[in-house]
Amino acid sequence: MMGQGGGGTGGEDTGGAAGDGDGIRTFPFPAELAVGGVGMQIGPMGTDRTWHAEAPLHRVHRIDFHVVMLFTDGPVRHMIDFAEYEAGAGDLLWIRPGQVHRFSRECEYRGTVLTMQPGFLPRSTVEATGLYRYDLPPLLHPGPAQLAALRAALDQLRREYEDTATLPLSLHTAVLRHTLTACLMRLAHLAASSAETSPQHADGTFIRFRDAVERGFATNHSVSAYADALGYSRRTLVRAVRAATGETPKGFIDKRVVLEAKRLLAHTDMPIGRVGVAVGFPDAANFSKFFHLHTGQTPVAFRAELR
C-alpha cells in the first residue's frame, strides 16, 4: 500500500489476505515486495505506487504489521478502531498490528510511509520503543524541531533501505535494524509525550500480563487465572497493571474484550450470538449484559447505529 491509501495495508483483495474466521480481512506484511526481502519497507505515498491495486482500500481490514505515515499534504481522514482521525501536513499516523482501520476514498495520501514486521526488531527494542502501546494515540502532531528530526531520520532510513549495493545482505539488514531503532526511539518519545497523561513505566510483570491477555482474552476473562498462569500473586498483578495503565487487571481485560466485540459487530455480519462466543461468552444473554454494562448499548443497538 505504498501509494494512494497509505503504507502497507491492502484492503479486501483476496490475494495474500487471510481470514480470521470473523469476517475481517487480515493482511500480512508483503515481504516479497521489500527490498532484499527484509522485514520493513519505506517509500513515498502517492497515486503512482499501490499495493493490492484492485482492492477497495476504503473497506475495513486488519494488518499484522506496523504502519507509520508521515503526511506532506492534507487533510487526510482515516478510521482506526472506531475513531476518525484527521491528519494534516506534518502529522503522523501510527497503526499497530491487529487494529481495524480504513482508508478514506475522498482523501489523497501523500508523504512517506514506513511499514515493519514486529519480528524484524529484537524484543528489547520492541519494548523500549512501545510498539505495542495501544493506549497511546495513533495521531501525532510533532513540533517543528521534532518534525525536522523525524524527517531526517526517515530520510536516512530510506537511503539505507534503498542502498543494496555497498553491503552484503546480512550487514545491510543489521544496519537497517539499527537505523530503524533510532527512528522509532524518536517516534516513541513523541507518542509518549502526546498521551493525555504521562505514561508510567511498564515493567516486566505488566508486559507479560498484557501479552497473555492479547493471546487469551477470547477465552479467559479471569484475573486469578492469568495470575496463576504467569506465576504472580493477584496483588502483584494489580499493582503492576495499575502502575502501567491506571486500571485494574479486570478493567484491562474487559476493555480488550469490548474492543474486539465492537470490531466484530461493526465490521462483520456475524450473528450476535457468534460474536459473543468469539469473545468468550457462550451465552448470548450474558454477552448482551456485559456489552451493555461497558458501553451503555446493547450489541444490536451498537450495530444498528453504525449501519
TrEMBL record:
<dbReference type="InterPro" id="IPR014710">
    <property type="entry name" value="RmlC-like_jellyroll"/>
</dbReference>
<dbReference type="InterPro" id="IPR009057">
    <property type="entry name" value="Homeodomain-like_sf"/>
</dbReference>
<keyword id="KW-0805">Transcription regulation</keyword>
<dbReference type="InterPro" id="IPR018060">
    <property type="entry name" value="HTH_AraC"/>
</dbReference>
<protein>
    <submittedName>
        <fullName>Helix-turn-helix domain-containing protein</fullName>
    </submittedName>
</protein>
<dbReference type="InterPro" id="IPR003313">
    <property type="entry name" value="AraC-bd"/>
</dbReference>
<dbReference type="Pfam" id="PF12833">
    <property type="entry name" value="HTH_18"/>
</dbReference>
<dbReference type="InterPro" id="IPR037923">
    <property type="entry name" value="HTH-like"/>
</dbReference>
<dbReference type="Pfam" id="PF02311">
    <property type="entry name" value="AraC_binding"/>
</dbReference>
<feature type="domain" description="HTH araC/xylS-type">
    <location>
        <begin position="207"/>
        <end position="305"/>
    </location>
</feature>
<keyword id="KW-0238">DNA-binding</keyword>
<feature type="region of interest" description="Disordered">
    <location>
        <begin position="1"/>
        <end position="22"/>
    </location>
</feature>
<keyword id="KW-0804">Transcription</keyword>
<feature type="compositionally biased region" description="Gly residues">
    <location>
        <begin position="1"/>
        <end position="21"/>
    </location>
</feature>
